Amino acid sequence: MIFITGASGGVGSLVLEHAVSHGLSVRAGSRDPIKSAENSKFKSIEWVKFDFNDPSTFADSLRGVEKVFLYIGPNTDKFALEAKKAGVKLIVFMSSLLVLSETPSFIGSMHAVIEDAIKECGIDWQVKNGNVFTVYPKAKGFYVHEHDVAEVAVAALTRTEMVNTAPALTGYKYSAEEIVSIISKRIGKNISITQISEEVAAETMKKFGIPEPTYREIFSTKKRLLTEEIFKKSDDLQKILGKPPRTFEDWVEESIHLFM
Question: Which residues lie below 8 Å from residue 37, measured CB to CB, with a gap of 6+?
Answer without folding.
Answer: 43, 45, 47
